[in-house]
Amino acid sequence: MRRRRPRRTGLRRGLRRGLRTGFTALLVGGLLATAVPAQAAPRAPGGLPADVDAFPRYQAPITCAPPQPGTLALAQLIRDAYGRQTLGLARACPANGVPVSEHSDGRAVDWMLQAGDPAQAALAEEFLTWLLATDERGNVAAHARRLGVMYVIWNQQVWKTYQAGAGWQPYTGPDPHTDHVHLSLTFSGAARETSWWTGTTDPLRGHWIALGGERSVLGADVGGRRTTAAGGVARKDYRHGTVYSSPTTPVREVHGGIRARFEKIGGVGTLGVPLTDELRTPRRTGAYNHFQFGSIYSSPATGSFEVRGAIRDRWAQLGWENGLGFPVTGDTRTPVKTGYYTHFEGGSVYWSPTTGAHAVRGALRDAWARQGWENGRLGFPTGDEQPVPGGLRLEFQGGSITWDAARRTTSTSHTGN
């Protein structure tokens, strides 16, 4: 089938030279290798399915990460087709750790081509014609969808796979993109889990394949039916675990004790979909999954329990499992007053709407427990333990408890005493 080039209207306006401030060009091994004769377009792999990956929704960045496997693979694909090229893949995450673009979470490629250079502009147009072409079965932007390309920006225009019917639209962002073609990927595209790489258009199965299929922690495909619930959340069960997807989050799995706890407390309805696969804790023996609305941590000694909300945030500030230890209870409502708590190996974190979340541990926690926890005269903690001459002090709604390190005793002072 003869390909038609897109209209060149507007594709040669302006000239920008150099990289914008704050951008780091990451030259991945081999990206500046000896030039090779360019082919007309990237070569598609054999064995692609007849159907094409679904049109995505926009997927905002949710974490800070280095260039992902699919991002690196797309850069290599461009090099294999067009030879010596400069490709930027990395941009530092902001100091606050909140990602602001797909570059922040490793899901973007910048191909440094100048719109004002006729040869480079023609190269960009050749690639984009191929990427966004309708295939012989009538699938719009078939290659873009198979590679998991979410949107493209080039020479003051943007093409969005999630708004494919609109075609090329004016781009009004601060950078006109006249010095590079920007390609942002979906989570599955960045993970190298789309049909171009896995041979399946089902993202749930694609993730299973990427993990190792039958040899992965999920085990064999037992023929479980793929189910989709409200909001587009989908799941598929394998012998030892389950894979979840949603339109705006990565495809991830849960298995073992974490999956059992996840399902026991209400699954997606309680914690949302998983945002990570099961990961090992970095120092102590254990594992965890992060979910949309909390986390589940597991260790051989404690079992698997969820931590969420402000309690999770405070636990994280104290060093996760390396601070207070692993959770030994789930997120639990206080029995009388309005609040929640989670007990950990080395203490507890209590929360109420008026006091926030604070840690209580050691002899201070023991003394507070003897006085009725939050239901006693002291109420909820209003701060964390603070050093005082000779020991530690913890403030509560109704007073304070002080630990005398020399005598190894505690004393309580009630408000108004």
Give an account of the 3D structure.
The structure is a single chain. With 417 residues, the chain is of the alpha+beta class. The protein folds into two domains: 201 residues, no CATH class; 110 residues, no CATH class. The chain contains ten helices and 22 strands. The chain has a six-stranded antiparallel β-sheet with strand order 1-2-6-3-4-5. Strands 7-8-9-10 form a four-stranded antiparallel β-sheet, sandwiched between helices. The chain has a four-stranded antiparallel β-sheet with strand order 11-12-13-14. The termini are far apart.
Give the structure's gist in a few sentences.
With 417 residues, this protein is of the alpha+beta class. The protein is 20% helix and 24% strand.
Keyword list:
alpha+beta, 417 residues, 24% strand, 20% helix, disordered N terminus, 2 domains, 6-stranded antiparallel beta sheet, 4-stranded antiparallel beta sheet, elongated
Find the structural class using helix and strand composition: alpha+beta
How many helices does DSSP assign? 10
Give the spatial strand order of the biggest sheet: 1-2-6-3-4-5
Q: Would you count the extended β strands for me?
A: 22
Helix content: 10-25%
Number of folding domains? Answer: 2
Radius of gyration: 27 Å
- For the termini, the CA-CA separation is 89 Å
Quaternary structure: single chain
Pfam family, one: LGFP
Domain ARB-07466-like C-terminal: 68-181
Signal peptide: 1-40
Keywords: Signal
